[in-house]
Design brief:
Elements (H helix, E strand, L loop, with lengths): L6 H22 L11 H8 L15 H15 L1 H11 L4 H27 L5 H14 L3 H9 L2 H33 L3 H31 L1 H13 L11 H10 L5 H15 L10 H46 L1
Helix pairs in contact: 1-5, 1-8, 1-9, 3-5, 3-8, 3-11, 4-5, 5-9, 7-8, 8-9, 8-10, 8-12, 9-10, 10-13
């Protein structure tokens, strides 16, 4: 039976792949500037309105768009925690260090531009937004707390941290891309849509980097990687899960097609598993085969859950539409 590789062994073996993918990323990434996506003239107009912090009537965003923008921004705000995670589980030397720095710099732009847009356009309450940022960043994000549930001891985590981290960020970056892109569509503002398209393009390139690294790890140590991939999929949570109002905002986003269970399955999980050829490959040992079979059972259950969720969502939206019709009749 093949042994699991240590974190150091994985980093050494995969560094050439990391270097190739850093160079690929740098050749494809497009420079852009947050200030180019912010309608600064609107900010001057609002400044002339008496300097109040915010009035709900100033926002042109729907409740769904507000919930999605706040969720996406607070997720981006937790960048210091994410930086710590990849710096600890990758390395700060060679190609690994180049990637850690470059990825962090690119991700930082996302938070800058979304916040500038929301504050300048008066899209959301800036005081409430800042209070939520303080809470969310103080809580932070720590992948080790989740990974230890799978591997048990600190020593086991030290060996597994890289594999779990690279599996998680593959799916997370793709999920974030979907969320940003669909948020742009519901904002009913071409500036916001263009801004979030630009962010989603970055997230896609980040996903490709991590997907390629995780795919190489799967080739290098199939059973070990399969265990990490399966556990991440079956317990997946977006990194913003602990933010204020996450459940409320997540429900709104799911109900209105920004990020729901079908998108998670069909646009995030399955394309990545297909790219890795997970269900066709024949290089797993007995343990890897067992894990893959369990993952297949989980995905079958998830498909059934998608149908149930959509049935419940359709009923809920129909009830809301009926209430809205009755209210419009009464008002009329």
């Amino acid at each position: 039976m093949a042994r699991n590789l240590t974190q150091l062994e994985l980093l050494i073996e995969l560094e050439p792949i990391a270097e190739q993918n850093v160079n690929r990323h740098l050749s494809m990434a497009k420079d852009w500037h947050p200030h180019d996506y912010v309608p600064w003239t609107e900010g001057r107009n609002f400044a002339a309105m008496g300097g109040i912090d915010w009035d709900p009537e100033q926002s042109q965003l729907s409740e769904v768009a507000k919930a999605a923008m706040i969720t996406n921004l607070l997720t981006e705000d937790n960048l210091p925690s994410y930086h710590r995670e990849i710096a600890e589980n990758f390395s700060q030397d060679g190609a690994w260090g180049t990637w850690v720095g470059r990825w962090t710099a690119e991700e930082n732009r996302h938070g800058i531009v979304i916040r500038d847009y929301l504050v300048v356009t008066r899209g959301v309450d800036p005081v409430a937004l800042e209070n939520a940022r303080m809470v969310h960043m103080t809580n932070g994000y720590r992948a080790a707390n989740l990974i230890k549930n799978y591997v048990g001891t600190q020593a086991a985590y030290n060996a597994a941290g890289f594999m779990y981290s690279v599996a998680y960020v593959t799916f997370q970056e793709l999920a974030t891309r979907v969320s940003h892109r669909n948020t742009g569509k519901v904002c009913n503002d071409p500036i916001a849509d263009k801004m979030l398209q630009r962010i989603a393009a970055d997230e896609n390139l980040h996903m490709i980097f991590y997907r390629n690294l995780c795919g190489a790890a799967l080739d290098l140590s199939p059973d070990q990687a399969m265990e990490a991939i399966s556990n991440i999929i079956m317990t997946f949570q977006m990194p913003g899960a602990g933010m204020p109002n996450f459940r409320r905002n997540g429900v709104l986003m799911a109900k209105h097609g920004i990020y729901d269970l079908r998108q998670h399955l069909e646009e995030v999980i399955m394309p990545v598993l297909k790219k890795w050829n997970v269900f066709e490959r024949n290089d797993f040992g007995p343990r890897g085969d067992e894990i893959r079979n369990n993952l297949g059972d989980y995905l079958d259950k998830l498909r059934r859950d998608v149908v149930r969720f959509e049935e419940q969502r359709d009923r809920s939206l129909a009830r809301e539409a009926q209430r809205a019709d009755k209210e419009s009749i009464l008002i009329g």
